């Protein structure tokens, strides 16, 4: 273990086989953990400088090889078979034990900062479930030289903070680790405009978490408003509305308004004109947001790619100024469509692409006489219903009926 495994790959392979031999015994992972702890020694600091990088090299290279092997077998699940599952979890558990030691954690953080795993694994929830506790332990370490390693090694390179964010493909904890790490970064040396500008890429996730009364997300939104990092009054109003939807957010926003005159003026306006909800929003999030303040000016609402269903129609029907409604790729069905057609007669643009609506609900569209653009791509629209809609909607200018029976 005192040699540099970068120069001796055969020795690295030997240690991998040795770890798997330990893992195959009765009480396998505990035996492996004892091996790692014995390697560190009983002292506060490990006396052998090469032990840590060699152990990490053993684990990361083994994990990478196993992942590529699974991919070559075209497995849909990177934990696709029992043997691969056992081996992968063994190496993850070694990294977890390494992370327990204060003297090893800075070195581990530095070695993992470049994210030494393939992109397809980072998009797999089962993989992220295994690596997340290790990343969280690093990102919440109070030492600056440790927790800053969750950021990318250079400006254009993504780091662990991006891969565990709520809007990441394989987020597996609803953003809990992400907000915990950001809280540590903000409380240390990253309460700066440059860092907040980077978080603007995750603005939707911040608003969703703030809507669910996450204190850190609310703090981020308040800082963005205070430092005027958000462009446009509509976006600012959406943040304001989000903050006012929960007791914690309302308290933080009120304290901010006491210091910021321009926010007091913004608050006097009758809500935003445009509103876009983050992709993981649910019916409960829509209800919480739309019940939090005035929306008399709201003309454009996008719920595309969210998790909303027809249940949110109870809130949508109160938006009498609505002109544009985007429900693309949601579970908004016939019952919800019947409601909005009964109440929202000012709608001019409606996107129902990839929703489960059928002729039963689509027949109600005849009530929307102001409708100019309609997207029914990939719905269960029939040719007969399409002909009825064309005849009953004289203002209709654009209709997308691709991948339907009317196409």
From TrEMBL:
Instruction: Spell out the InterPro entries in the cross-references.
Output: CMIP, LRR_dom_sf
Q: Which residues form the signal peptide?
A: none
- Report the protein name in the record: C-Maf-inducing protein
Q: Which organism is it from?
A: Armadillidium nasatum
Q: Gene encoding this polypeptide? A: cmip
